[in-house]
Amino acid sequence: MAKVIAIANQKGGVGKTTTGINLAASLAAAEMKTLLVDCDPQANATSGLGFPKSASRKSLYHLLSGEIRWQQGVLHTEMERMDIVPADQNLTGALVELVEVDRREFRLKEAIEPLRRKYQFILLDCPPSLNLLTLNALVAADSILIPIQCEYFALEGVSEMLETMVQVRRQWNPGLSVEGFLLTMFDERTNLSRQVAADLRAFFAGQVFRTVIPRNVRLAEAPSHGKPIILYDVKSKGAGSYIQLALEVIDHGKKGARKGN
Hints:
By secondary structure, the chain is an alpha/beta fold. It has one domain: P-loop containing nucleotide triphosphate hydrolases (Rossmann fold). The chain is built from 12 helices and 8 strands. The chain has helices at about 15-30, 45-50, 60-65, 70-75, 90-95, 105-110, 130-140, 160-170, 190-205, 215-220, 230, 235-260, and strands at about 5, 35-40, 75, 80-85, 120-125, 145-150, 175-185, 210-215. An 8-stranded mixed beta sheet has the order 3-4-2-5-1-6-7-8, sandwiched between helices. Strand 3 (about 75) and strand 4 form a beta hairpin. The chain is globular. The chain starts with a strand and ends with a helix. About 45% of the residues are buried.
């Protein structure tokens, strides 16, 4: 059964989509069959894997609306063992259409339930806001991975995210846990990055990944070529960091499985 991880932070520009694409690719490279679900109407994870944005293609919107079964919504990527459920601008309409639907918070959970048996990891790339799509992702997820940018306003948005997580636990998903906080856009040349990283590790003791994602030109270039970083430049610092993050996530999953036995 797949572990479902929502990648979320209500603050934009912290590396959610970059993490979704590259963590999924690195898990697949580690021989873990992985599905990335693009939950953002901007569809950046979709285009970042080389699929042009298209409102005519079957997407997460059609899965949530019940128009299609999962077989029609999953696309195979260039990476072996990595698939994606794409997004498109139609997802914006889902925010309106689902408001009056019974059990609207569970639509994504119900849509991906058959996929849990087919993958080892399912990653949900959330929009940079707390809307019904993000809520669906948190209800569907086993855990949440929160990217945090190593800059002055690092905690902006995180407190709201944690408050939302508490509410989701209370009302819909009592098993939702924190997968970890991921420090992104780290610049080892600056005192600010080092200080922010130290402060966050102290504040979220034991919950911050050892791996830090650096500011990296090759990592920033990769989406424009429609490739994850390990296909674009496997020797880059960005690729090495996401490979290490994948190993941490795999190890965390194994420890969780042992505790459950």
